[in-house]
Prior knowledge:
Elements: H1 3-8, H2 23-50, H3 58-63, H4 81-94, H5 96-116, H6 119-130, E1 136-139, H7 149-152, E2 156-160, E3 163-173, E4 181-188, E5 194-200, E6 206-210, E7 223-233, H8 244-279, E8 281-282, E9 285-286, H9 291-319, H10 325-350, H11 362-373, H12 378-390
Parallel strand pairs: 1-4, 2-4
Antiparallel strand pairs: 2-3, 3-7, 4-5, 6-7, 8-9
Helix pairs in contact: 2-4, 4-5, 4-8, 5-6, 5-8, 8-9, 8-10, 8-11, 9-10, 10-11, 10-12
Amino acid sequence: MSDLRDADLLTGDFFGYGSLLTDEEQKIVGRVREFCRTEIAPIAQEAWSRAEFPHEIVPKFAELDIAALPYDGLAGPAARRLLIGFVSLELAHTDASLNSFFGIHNGLAMGSIDLCGSDEQRERWLPAMARMEQIGAFGLTEPHGGSDVAQGLETTARREGDTWVLNGEKRWIGNATFADLVVIWARDEADDAVKGFVVHEDNPGMTATKIENKIALRTVQNADIVLTDCRVLEEDRLQRANSFKDTNGVLRRTRGGVAWGATGTMIGAYEAALAYSKEREQFGRPIGGFQLVQDLLVRMLGNITASLGMCVRLAEMQDAGEARDEHAALAKEYTTTAMRETVALARQVVGGNGVVLDYGVAKFFADAEALYSFEGTREINTLVVGRAITGHSAFVR
Length: 397
């Protein structure tokens, strides 16, 4: 392990998990960190405050050449989940909104096509998406369904010859106001099975309206989607998506990514609070020199370290093919719960200044609320883990 790698570890990575990356992987993470410092950090606060997406950053994102990392054959062999996780950690450490934008495109949309598309569909869509010439979105959640989406999916698909007709509504669909293609999940009227469809932005019958007045992830352009006799060619139906089990395969991958994003959000809040504690003076000395403030900082660091350790082990299990639903569910549940406490402690360290954007904590504090809820609420994830450890399902039938 080189001295340079030691110096490059995040302040919040107290046990040095980043040293598990190879030299080449560390270079990739280093490029992402520099990109975050020079391109994202200067615009993140303004974009979040205005609830506007900085479209000018997408070509710069593309130059990082990281969208292909999870996928075998796009730019060589698929990268280790550990590297993919640290990329998410770095992005979220600077801005959870742009990490979510990238995760929706790279994880949910590209992941759906990679797992559920035919070889021809993968070749048709993934290379351009990897170059970020086409941006993707993922349409699963509905206005009347969240946690019960597996059984309560209301959007329907009806086949008419070589065309499918989609009708229904989707809600909270990130990137949907400007995405080139949206993966829509709908229930086949003929066999009641959940199927996936790639709907292009110019498809007649699909409209996306931005959701306003959010308090979290404000830069992410979440939308309400309405599908009214939206016609999709059979060639745009994901050929390997034949049940919700296939949909869940995509979510299993990305749920672990949310755990990395939550941990990065914690680190961002912690590092901002730590810097503030060294500069802010009260009673004639920096507040970082007071016992109560140090207690808050150490509690935050403990949450981060435990969460990062869980993320690292989950990534190892994913690479070994050993990760199951309950492993991803526990990681998501634990890290987002720890994150909620950690950002609150960071806000406490910064005091009254923690409720304005200027001091680096408020945005993390607010964004944590969205991360806590999406990709399965804490309660649903506890039921997934509870079923695994007891052998009894407590889900409502």
